[in-house]
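Hi R.,

As promised, here are both runs. First protein below:
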Amino acid sequence: MKTPVVSIARPDGRAYLVGPGHPLLLIAGPCVLESEELARRVCGTMQEISGRLGLSYVFKASFDKANRTALDSFRGPGLDDGLAIMSRIREEMGVPVLSDVHESIQVPQAAQILDVIQIPAFLCRQTDLLQAAAASGKPINLKKGQFVSPWDMAHAVGKIDRLGAGRVMLVERGSCFGYNNLVVDMRSFPVMRDLGCPVVFDATHSVQLPGGAGHASGGQRQFIAPLTRAAVAAGIDGLFMEVHPDPDRALCDGPNSIALDEIETLLRQILAIRRSLESCADA
């Protein structure tokens, strides 16, 4: 079995190592690039908190949410303008950046800027997209589809490993549980780690109610904290969170985003859980 460790390059020339025995990875930012000012605000706050808590931090935001429920939903600034914002944040704030791609043709341009390429859950079986991401040479944050079992992600990993072995992080973001509802199966973390990949918990999309608001997705953000604590106890290598200064006014995924001024308390809780587990392992 492959060693489940992935290296993420940093703008300063060093790298984060993600996997067992390494600091917890935090991928956090707004769902979509609403404005450069908001992106910088969230990034700066998360960068400062992560530095104090000893977390490996990657800023995330989407330049285009191509899978919104309704046609008139806000999608973001688009590929060119969005990547320009991500580039400035990366260079001026000194933080690695991540965004999602939806088509193979986007990958070469995105890979010039992004430190991590993300594959959305809906597209986790798209062979051409997976192989284009693998050919970029960048680490890949691959979300498990809501309709895919954790063990069947072996096939998606295999498509990438053909060109980019050792670059995949697998993300749990809930599984379909009837209509407009998701449930998190904590067994998925050890199952997917056994595929030789670090595992990441998408704490905010896991409480999403897909299409639950009729014209948009709903969410139950009150369950972010308990599910995150449970996932850390189950053993994860990274945490993915959509963070916003005012989730009720967010242009995308507000109902399942965590407030910027609430996140540090939760991060301190989960790090205490992680330290407790490490102490038990050493005893």
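And here is the second one, sequence first, then its structure tokens:
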Amino acid sequence: MFSQYIDSPLGPVHILATASGITAISFVPTRQAAEQPSALTTLAAQQLSAYFAGTLSHFSLPLTASGTVFQQQVWRQLCAIPFGQTCSYADIARGISNVKAVRAVGAANGRNPIAIVVPCHRVIGANGTLTGYAGGLDKKAWLLKHEQRQKALFG
């Protein structure tokens, strides 16, 4: 397992990877362990830094997060949400052709281990309100505003 941290406007971000792909990206309160970077964690760190700098709107990283078949399906659908846009859990359920799975989509969204790159922060309540985010609603609000500003600047 490879590990690397970056500093972001929202605090430290921890990147984990195997030799074949990124397995987790998460906000952490402090750098908790020694780093063991790899080419993949370095690439993720570069892309995340560019995202936070406002110069990257699409990630191109191999992702290998562990999850159920259903979770993987939801996470792939999350990656289809365009930069700077939001959708509801029901939209994701429709996107995976399982309209009755709104609650299960919410649960899978909450278990997404790859923050930012798999943009679960772009999912909001059907009424337009911000709903749960593992990193905290303050981070979710910041990420959405950051993307909307960048989208307005670069369209």
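A quick note on the second one: Residues 137-154 form the longest helix (18 residues). Let me know what you think.

Best,
J.
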